[in-house]
Write a structure and sequence with these properties.
single chain, alpha+beta, Pnp Oxidase, Chain A, seven-stranded antiparallel sheet, 6 helices, 7 strands
Length: about 200
């Protein structure tokens, strides 16, 4: 995915309306096509992720995928694989990938220290993959060639272990703090001022 393909006219129009184009361009510098050691450790520790697919007409679908941590594996510098387990038989995700290989994956940790990682790429569904012989319960293997790997701000992620919403989630009568990263030296000069919103 080229730099010019990452943001389209719709993204740019909203960035310009909200004054965040410079911030968006700065964040683009965090995008990569190769997994870091930290990415791999986070992905392989995950017990679930969310998978976004679309059919050949662009109609979207989002699915929860879960398993024992390690069920998603980084198998190359910019490639990962995960099993398709027995499900409801609709094959929404796998069928969509068969006609439109463009997918998005969201890995998210909601306990302790919140974290999110996005992986966008092109997927293939394989019936004869060597990983089938070593993946308990897999009926198919999905391989994903990453085109954009990037962290995602975790500030609205709740702490499920503590049973608490994020302190950054807006509430009536409470001033919502800014995300810490907005004050980082590499970002502070491009962060637009916060817009006034309904306070409740």
């Amino acid at each position: 995915m080229s730099e010019g393909d990452f943001y389209h006219a719709g993204n740019r129009a909203l960035q310009d309306e909200f004054g965040s184009r410079a911030l968006a361009d700065r964040l683009l510098g965090l995008k990569r096509e190769v997994f870091t050691d930290e990415d791999q450790a986070f992905i392989e520790s995950a017990g679930f992720f969310f998978l976004a697919t679309a059919d050949d007409q662009g109609r979207p679908d989002c699915s929860f995928k879960g398993g024992v941590p390690g069920f998603v594996r980084v198998i190359g510098p910019g490639e990962l694989a995960f099993p398709d387990y027995d499900g409801n038989g609709m094959f929404r995700s796998m069928g969509n990938i068969a006609v439109n290989p463009n997918i998005g994956m969201l890995f998210i940790a909601m306990d302790g220290s919140p974290k999110r990682l996005r992986v966008n790429g092109r997927a293939s569904v394989l019936r004869d993959d060597p990983l089938l012989g070593e993946t308990v319960g897999a009926q198919l293997i999905v391989r994903v060639a990453a085109q954009a790997i990037f962290p995602n701000c975790p500030r609205y992620v709740p702490d499920l272990a503590a049973g608490e919403a994020s302190v950054y989630s807006p509430r009536a009568g409470i001033e919502t703090p800014d995300a810490e990263w907005k004050s980082f030296e590499m970002m502070a000069d491009v962060v637009p001022p916060r817009r006034d919103t309904f306070k409740g």
